[in-house]
Every structure is written in structure tokens, then in C-alpha cells.
Design brief:
With 230 residues, this protein is α+β, with helices and mostly antiparallel strands. The longest helix is centred in the N-terminal third of the chain and has 21 residues, at 57-77. Helix content is 31%, strand content 27%. It has helices at 11-22, 57-77, 96-107, 117-123, 147-160, 202-207, and strands spanning 2-7, 28-31, 47-50, 82-84, 87-91, 113-116, 135-139, 143-146, 164-166, 171-175, 180-184, 187-196, 223-226. It has one domain (2-211, 218-226): FAD/NAD(P)-binding domain, CATH 3.50.50.60. Helix 1 (11-22) packs parallel to helix 5 (147-160) and helix 2 packs across helix 5 (147-160). Bound molecules: flavin-adenine dinucleotide. The site of flavin-adenine dinucleotide has 24 residues, from helix 1 and strand 3.
């Protein structure tokens, strides 16, 4: 019997399990259908752009907490997970995403520069050629997270705090109730509550308990790039 079962050991599920354990929850089980840190999920790969240059104010403010949490994890794990490269967000002049990003960063007091495409072409003559009338936001403090390394560090720290990670356990059924039963291809587990962090597999898993998630692919009219070498 567990206090909480987290389904899916991508970055979302691993961070949930890690933070539950860090917050003092005893008896956390993290279940993963493939091997831990496999290369079929959204969280695999070398790097992820990490920035506060977002359109939505909530994300801008949340990222300030996230930077601190990544830095704490680096200290706990004794490794480097983040590299400051600076990030540029750019789009057509008047692009609503870029304009709103500038507004949100101003409200949240995040240092940034706003430049035209022409100014960027002058500043980076060898690296960039974008239309002169484009609008660009530069956040010098942004950078990249080493994605696979971050995932591994999160899972290792979770286990060091007493959490259990079982990989190659595919959840095939969730039976709701006061005590939740989670059925896998290798046996069943019970818990007081369950967190589903199954990424793109979530709609299939959730529909088995009558929850039908809308699954939308977002459309962006902007571009992103790191401005210093990775
Ligand atoms: C190509 C690409 C580039 C990206 N670039 C960026 C970027 O630069 N910056 C950024 O912030 N974000 C970026 N993202 C988004 C970010 O990577 C994702 O939002 C994040 O990795 C999602 O993590 P997740 O844990 O929700 O999903 P996943 O990593 O997919 O994890 C879900 C896990 O659940 C497991 N699972 C599913 N079903 C079951 C089951 N039935 N039983 C047991 N386990 C199960 C899966 O095997 C998987 O391991 C990018 C995404 C992609 C794909």
C-alpha cells in the first residue's frame, strides 16, 4: 500500500514524485512503462530551452521559482544541469505573442532587451539574417537544461529520499475508489491517491476511467533561438 502512485516517469511525473518525497510524503511509487530515461517520451534528448520570456504572465512568474528549483537540484545532485546561453524570441512586427511577452516580462520585472530585426542583424552579422522589421526579445539569463541528465538527477534524488521507481511497469487499468488500485503488466498496486503524468499517452489512459482530455497541438507564430554557444 502506497500513499501516492505517480504514473509516468517523464520530467512531469519524476518532478511530482521528487517534490512529494521532498515535501515529506512517505510511500511514493513512480511507475514507468518503459525503461527509466528511455528515448520515446517528450522528456528525452539532450537539451531544452529554459526561459522566462513567455507570453503568459503566470509562466513568467512560475519560471522564477523553477530556476531556483533547478539550482537546488544541481546542488543536491552535485552536477550541472543548466547552461546560461541567453535566448531570443522573435516574430513578425506586431506579432501578438512577442508583444504580450514584452508586456509580461515588464510586469514581472524580468531584465530583457527589445530589438528590431535590423538591430539583431547588425549585432550578429555572421550568425543571423532575419527580416529587418521583425521584433525580437532577448533574455540574457535564459539558457538550456540538459534534459536527460536532469531527468536522471530528479529520479536519483527521489530514490535517495526513499521513493520507489519501478520501470518496465505499464499501467493497464486504474480502478478508482477510496483506495485506488493501479493494475500493471507486472502486478497491481494500491494507494490513497494517484497522479497521472503520462504525457501524450494520458488521453488513452484517462479515457479508461471516463475522463476524456482534449488533446491540442499548440500553434506558435514565433521563433526561438539560443544566442550564445551551447
Ligand atoms: C521535440 C521537443 C522539443 C521540446 N522543446 C522544449 C524546450 O525547448 N523547452 C521546454 O520547456 N519544453 C520543450 N518541450 C516540451 C517538454 O519536453 C515537455 O513538455 C515535457 O518533456 C513533457 O514531459 P512529460 O513528463 O509530461 O511527458 P513524457 O516525457 O512523454 O513522459 C510521460 C511518461 O509517461 C509514461 N507512460 C505513459 N503511459 C504510461 C502507462 N500506461 N504506464 C506507465 N507509464 C506510462 C511514458 O512512457 C513516459 O515516460 C519539447 C518537447 C519536444 C517533444
Amino acid at each position: 500500500m502506497y500513499e501516492c502512485i505517480v504514473i509516468g516517469a517523464g520530467i512531469e511525473g519524476s518532478a511530482t514524485a521528487y517534490n512529494l518525497a521532498k515535501g515529506g510524503t512517505k510511500g511514493v511509487l513512480l511507475l514507468e512503462q518503459y525503461e527509466a530515461c528511455h528515448n520515446r517520451g517528450s522528456s528525452c534528448g539532450q537539451s531544452r530551452i529554459t526561459r522566462r520570456a513567455y507570453e503568459t504572465l503566470f509562466y513568467v512568474e512560475m519560471m522564477t521559482d523553477a530556476y531556483k528549483m533547478w539550482s537546488d537540484l544541481e546542488k543536491e545532485a552535485g552536477t550541472t544541469l543548466y547552461k546560461r546561453t541567453g535566448v531570443m524570441v522573435f516574430g513578425g512586427n506586431g506579432d501578438p505573442y512577442v508583444q504580450q511577452t514584452i508586456k509580461s516580462m515588464k510586469i514581472a520585472n524580468i531584465p530583457h532587451d527589445v530589438l528590431s530585426g535590423a538591430e539583431i542583424n547588425r549585432r550578429f552579422p555572421k550568425q543571423m539574417k532575419i527580416p529587418d522589421d521583425y521584433m525580437c526579445v532577448i533574455e540574457e539569463d535564459a539558457g538550456i537544461l540538459y534534459a536527460q541528465k536532469a531527468l536522471r538527477a530528479m529520479q536519483e534524488q527521489f530514490q535517495k529520499m526513499g521513493g520507489t521507481l519501478l520501470d518496465r511497469h505499464e499501467v493497464t487499468e486504474i480502478v478508482p475508489g477510496d483506495i485506488v488500485t493501479v493494475v500493471t503488466n507486472r502486478g497491481l498496486f494500491k494507494a490513497n491517491y494517484v497522479v497521472i503524468a503520462a504525457g501524450p499517452w494520458a488521453p488513452a489512459l484517462c479515457s479508461s476511467i471516463g475522463v476524456h482530455l482534449p488533446f491540442k497541438v499548440p500553434y506558435y507564430s514565433i521563433y526561438l533561438c539560443c544566442i550564445h554557444a551551447i
